[in-house]
Amino acid sequence: MKAIVIEQYGSAEQLVEKEMEAETPGDRQVLVDVYATSINPLDWKLREGYMKDDIPFEFPIILGWDVAGVVRTAGKDVTAFGPGDRVFARPKLTGRGTYAEQTLVDENLLVAIPEPMSYEEAAGIPLAGMTAQQCLLEFGEITEGSKVLIQGGSGGVGHFAIQVAKDVGAYVAATASGRNQEFLKQMGADVAINYEEENVVDILSDYDMVLDTVGESVHEESFRVLRTGGRFASVAAPPSQEKAEEAGITAGFVWLQEEGEKLRRLTSLYNKGALRVEINSKHKFSEKGLRAAHKESEEGRARGKIVIKVR
Q: What pTM was computed for the model?
């Protein structure tokens, strides 16, 4: 099978095409023909080697941890899916990811793609959508009436977070550049803040929860808009526990725990019209396409998701 791999850490130029042998599914796994995948910051951070001590994969590494496609073969104990089924998932984090024509997925992580949903839409949801959901519902414990700030509301995790929070009944503020203010409102934000011209601490106070998708540069101001006892979740940089304690809040760095049930909840939101997948761009499944997609993600200005069309 064709795969795009890295054989050493470094720039996007390390992404190269390689012929690889497709793996055989285990008893409770399926082999999926990949139709689409998407780019997440995790991909290029691993490619650069930032996480090599925490996640020591062996080369060649196939990056990518979103998949939408069709079941090719299933293990002998798989009961929920069979050949020809349209499925999507965030597979386990291994060195044999989804920048490939086929990939293995554990049965319990797979979810059926709803009929109206395209493969490109499906590929954009799993990692970013489940991350947003886990931050808000599990870590943040938001409920109807909660006041929530999304730092970086126009990105992959951010635009899903706005929609998940609104579905719960929260009051949502979100930050983005000037060009994305209208987009924040389209996603459902009650308050859209242009970080290029406005400071959140001048506008917001006594918030219950903040989700940071930007990084350490917004941590201090985020702590200041939270009420005592509020919660701060970051997917971009570990927050200072000392400063969080001083502010009287709970803060944490959230790492996705992938589960099929979490993805099924997002599917339900999509089916009832409460979840939209914004696709910033689509790239071809090639060295050139993946390199361009990685560079686009690293710039940090993509609205929604960056998708790779494999088939």
A: 0.98
